[in-house]
Amino acid sequence: MIVSYLHNFIFIKTKKTGGSSVEMMLAPPCGPDDIITPLGNQAELARGNGEPLCRNFADDPAWEEELRTIIKGKRPQARRKAFEAEHKPKFFNHMPANRIKALVAPAFWDRAVKITSERHPYEKAVSLAYFTFKSASSFEAHLDQVVRKRGYVGHHLYSIGEEVIVDEFIRLETLRDDMLRVADKLGLPVPNEIARAKSRTRLDLRPAREILSDAQKEVVYANCKKEFDLLGYEI
User: Which of 76, 139, 196, 209 is the residue whose CA sits 20 to 30 A from 87?
Assistant: First the structure.
């Protein structure tokens, strides 16, 4: 999640939609007072060329600095997990729009360009299943559980009540074209190569509609009907 006072935008991060890749483009031009929540260790270092860019997401600058030191250190995964368990940041990764709105100035909220990333709901469900899968269990059973638990649903993050508050959607299916459009609107540079984060966890590269059963598709559609209708995705 990013709040950029310098460039007048708010990025609301959804799950399994390429949001980390979007953040890797949006974060580097941000100013020192902008709010940038931490990515995973490798992505955080990659977007800052070895220096973590996350900042202003907590009330305590000292523990922000300690987290950045952990991310740059050796074998940071376990140390970071233990460290973060002791702290609750003010701003966090998949923060819903209503909570962001409550923490920024009303005038800024009103004028800021609200951005989010989206993806076909079938693809989100399958991607989340692979991302959370542990090899000791059955993937088919795990996929069915993920489909029914609704962790891939995104519209509640970028809506307040029944109102969708987003001005710009960046779709994973058209990532570069959408990022170019948004960057042009905000006056931001776009790198020649757009970095992709978390792209190696899915082993079966078939389209999600070929992986999901008809019953699972019906559940995904029921859970994400607002997303299908809003963005015109095919059932």
Answer: 196
